[in-house]
Each structure stands twice: as C-alpha cells, then as structure tokens.
What does this fold into?
Amino acid sequence: MKKRTLAIASDHGGVELKQSLTIYLQESGTEVADLGTNGSESVDYPDYAQKLSEWVEKNPGNMGILICGSGIGMSIAANRNPNIRAALCHDGLSASLSRRHNDANVLCLGARLIGIETAKDCVNEFLNSEFEGGRHQKRIDKLSILQRESQ
It folds into this structure.
C-alpha cells in the first residue's frame, strides 16, 4: 500500500468497521486522520461527510473513507461538495474502477452490507489504483463544468 495520509469518518452505524480499518491502515504504514464518530450514540452522517470533505479539500492529493450503515447516505452527502467524487463500493473491482475511471477521492462503504475482508479489499484497490486520465479526463472535466453551471 502506498504511503499517504488518509482521513476516515463514520456515523454510529460504521464505527466498528472504521475502527478495524483504521488499525489495518496504520499497520500497513498509512497515516490516518480519524475524524469521528467514536461511539454508538446516534449521530447525523451529513456532519461527518462534511468534515471529511473539507479535510480532503484542504489536503490536495489525499483521500478519504466514509462509512455508514449502507454507505448510501455518506455518498450522497459527500457528493454535494463540488470537489469531492465519492464512490460507494461493494468490492475491490468497483473500488479500483472508481479510481481508474472516475478519479474518486472518497471511498464510501456500507458497514451493514460488507464484511471486514471485503472492506479491506476495497481499501487496497482504492488506494493502489491510479486515475487513467485519457478518455476519462473529459468526463471528469464535464462534471466540473456541470457543477459550475448549476450554481
């Protein structure tokens, strides 16, 4: 796994998976910025998606992982930020393609839908895949244009 700093955040539904992935990442040499939450008390996922999105924006070239029960809420919330391309992934291939074709900078995972080994596979593929550019770059550029036009 490449050396980098990675932010990770979850709501109450993703705390256990977040904690397991944080340990896994740290053991592999990745510096992890844990942005919370750290307990089982109910919290609002948009707050943590926003916190992580702001961190990614302030740390160009670094990425993040968001976890909630399904991953859907975190993905929707993070993608409201114009500089975030959050991808909800359920396996290593979708995580790899999210980087290679979509230049995703945030990986979203559903703690109630995947186990720890699948989550580790997603993280490995996400962190070790590079954006291919080329024909994919024009589509990424189009996303930026559409975002500006909608404001």
The chain has six helices and five strands. The chain has one domain: 5-150. The domain at 5-150 is CATH 3.40.1400.10 (Ribose 5-phosphate Isomerase B; Chain: A,).
